[in-house]
Write a structure and sequence with these properties.
Blueprint (H helix, E strand, L loop, with lengths): L3 H5 L3 H23 L2 H17 L10 H40 L1 H16 L3 H11 L5 H8 L3 H26 L1
Length: 177
Amino acid sequence: MKYVEDIKDGNKRVFEEVYYKYHERFYFYVLKRTASEELAEEVVQMTFIKIWEKRTSLSEDFPIEVQIARVARFTLIDMLRKKAAERKVLTIIKQNADAAINHDPVVGKQLIQKVTETIENLPPECRKVFILSREEGLTYLEISNRLSISPKTVENQISKALKAVRKAVALSYILSF
């Protein structure tokens, strides 16, 4: 199929041509489904990163646009799941903090202090990524560009940070009662 063989062989010029030919089409595909320009851009960037990283496994039986569409669809689903899980964790943390504050303001302050302490004790890169995500509201792609790391590294660092915060909140919450 046109493009696939050249991309599989590592031809960057052809890959760039494909990127410029299909980027906008898939951007609007994701935008239509999410109504989020940031998420659309992030999904499309991740899609093309994945296509390049997995180029040797591309199938010559299908046109490149079909393979891009498949990767974009699964990337979108993965990102939506991860964002939903993050929101769920943060909602639980907030509910636990609110309950602790309502139950006992001193315990609530201790919980907030524990979360702050946990964030401060994260490894430096993990802490930096978490703060850029949560306090500055940057997307994974914006963080990866700012810190010159891959979006997958950003995703892993956020996951590690949320796990540590969740564990600290659960422990503090249990110990407060």
